[in-house]
Amino acid sequence: MIVYVDTSAALKLAVEEKESHHLAGYLQGLAAEGHHLVGSMLLYTELHCAGHRHGIPSGLITAVLGGLNLVDLARSDLMYAAALPGGLRSADAIHLATAIRLQSGLLVAYDGGLLAAAVDAGLSVIAPSAGD
């Protein structure tokens, strides 16, 4: 299964937050089961920019990204994102459009609007926490 990881989740792997430990364990479990952890090159850009803003060492950002298969954005992702309903922010719409194109079986994120839009689009979603 393809598991699409959004920036709201990937950032928790670089910055210690309440869900960070549970997310890391969940993703490690999926990888151990043979699932493909995927993000887009948009995630690459967003994570590096967040790292610069918050003083996160670039080596840590590189390590987080190294655990994911990064795919290029397609022109169709950008066009589909522009047509998505629901008032998503641009980056969230692009992540969702990319996850749909890749036929992801699961989207991992912590942004409520993105999670709701993904469910509306027919994707399974999760925001791993202590209860998972």
Note down, in words, how this protein is organized.
The chain is of the alpha/beta class and 132 residues long. The protein has a single domain, classed as 5'-nuclease (Rossmann fold). Helix content is 53%, strand content 13%. The chain has seven helices and five strands. It has helices at 7-10, 20-32, 41-54, 58-66, 75-83, 90-101, 112-120, and strands at residues 2-5, 36-40, 69-71, 106-108, 125-126. A five-stranded parallel sheet has the order 3-2-1-4-5. Strand 4 (106-108), helix 7 (112-120) and strand 5 form a beta-alpha-beta unit. Helix 3 packs antiparallel against helix 4 and helix 5 packs across helix 6. The longest helix has 14 residues, at 41-54. It is globular and about 35 Å long.
SSE blueprint and pairings:
Blueprint: E1 2-5, H1 7-10, H2 20-32, E2 36-40, H3 41-54, H4 58-66, E3 69-71, H5 75-83, H6 90-101, E4 106-108, H7 112-120, E5 125-126
Parallel strand pairs: 1-2, 1-4, 2-3, 4-5
Helix pairs in contact: 3-4, 5-6
What keyword list fits this structure?
132 residues, alpha/beta, Rossmann fold, five-stranded parallel beta sheet, 7 helices, 5 strands, 53% helix, 13% strand, globular
User: What summary fits the major beta sheet?
Assistant: 5 strands, parallel
Average residue-wise pLDDT? 96
Give the number of DSSP strands.
Answer: 5
First and last CA, distance: 19 Å
CATH topology category name: Rossmann fold
> Strand arrangement, largest sheet?
3-2-1-4-5
Strand content range: 5-15%
Quick description:
This protein has 132 residues and is α/β, with parallel strands linked by helices. Helix content is 53%, strand content 13%. The protein is globular.
